[in-house]
Amino acid sequence: MLALDGGNSKTDILLVDEHGSVMTRTRSGPFIPHLVGAVRAVELLAPDIERALASAPGGHVTLIAGYLANADLPIEEELIAAAIASYGWSDSVIVENDTLAMLRTGTEQGHGVAVVCGAGINCIGVGENGERVRFPALGRITGDWGGGLGISKEVLWYTSRAHDGRGPATSLSQAVASHFGLPHAAAVAEAMHLRSIDYDRMHEIVPLLFGEANAGDPIARAVVHRQAQELALLVTNALERLHLTDGTPEVVMGGGMLTSGEPLLVDVVINLVLAAAPGARITIVEDQPILGSALLGLEALLGPDANDITERTDRLRASLASTGVPA
């Protein structure tokens, strides 16, 4: 089996035998079908996938399991799966959103709710009967707000308005200007618009936000609090739709923003979730994301009735831990 974990910055590729042992691990570039289309996105990964498959008999596997960021809609999953299948690398292909892999990593049976917050934000809920709750996760046009990119734009919104007097003063203005070496924060926004500052550096604003929030700036604290509310709302909405608020559901939180340990964000999210579902068991997952893709793929490969699935998944965890993270 070949497992794929694709994201906006990198894609992990893992070749696993039927016993759960890792045969090959490698890393490829970003997986961005929302920008270049499914066919081109897979094409960009193809050389690294084929390098990993060189360790498989005949360069072929029974299953490719891709749990991928930017596969947010069922039609996107179908298009990506078709693009992978066209290479003939495997007998079958599974493609689903990466939040499902995170849910599997952080829970015993893959049931409950998982919320991820990195550059973007997403959430999935799975009931014991297999019922799923999903969100479009296409950004502001589908009601989403709160990923690292979104809050960085919010910071520039506030600092630009502070500069010209349309909004209240905030210490974020000086923090942003100093970080990018410009006279004021509005100049930072202009430089990003003109690309004299790479737009991809937007993520560097996030730690500035938390720094000023922890120092007590009211604007910064308000942005972080709103982010916490949005994350908690995703979780509680999923729990309510699955009728799990009165039980003891597992809730998994992951992604760079939620593994940061920032109390102003993480503690508020946890408290809001527990207010709606007091019995929720909340876990912050820091395991390698590829683990969830590989676990789901191994279970799909063996089938639900395999009598030694626990032994094989334990072997997978241990084998993956010993491989290290590729450069």
Task: Give a quick rundown of the structure.
The protein is of the alpha/beta class and 327 residues long. It has a domain at 2-98 and 287-323: Nucleotidyltransferase, domain 5 (2-Layer Sandwich), CATH 3.30.420.40.
Question: How big is the Rg?
Answer: 21 Å
Helix count equals: 12
Find the CATH topology of the domain at 2-98 and 287-323: Nucleotidyltransferase, domain 5
| CATH architecture label name of the domain at 2-98 and 287-323 | 2-Layer Sandwich
Low-confidence stretches are: none
User: Mind telling me the CATH class of the domain at 2-98 and 287-323?
Assistant: Alpha Beta
Protein model, in words:
By secondary structure, the chain is α/β, with parallel strands linked by helices. It has a domain of 134 residues: ATPase, nucleotide binding domain (Nucleotidyltransferase, domain 5, 2-Layer Sandwich). It is 47% helix and 18% strand. It has 12 helices and 10 strands. Strands 3-2-1-4-5 form a 5-stranded mixed sheet, sandwiched between helices. A 5-stranded mixed sheet has the order 8-7-6-9-10, sandwiched between helices. The longest helix has 24 residues. The mean pLDDT is 93.
Descriptors:
single chain, 327 residues, alpha/beta, Nucleotidyltransferase, domain 5, five-stranded mixed beta sheet, 12 helices, 47% helix, 18% strand, globular
Write the layout of secondary structure elements.
Layout: E1 2-6, E2 11-16, E3 22-28, H1 33-36, H2 38-53, E4 61-68, H3 74-85, E5 90-97, H4 98-106, E6 112-117, E7 121-126, E8 132-134, H5 148-164, H6 172-180, H7 185-194, H8 205-214, H9 218-241, E9 250-254, H10 263-276, E10 281-284, H11 290-302, H12 309-323
Parallel strand pairs: 1-4, 4-5, 6-9, 9-10
Antiparallel strand pairs: 1-2, 2-3, 6-7, 7-8
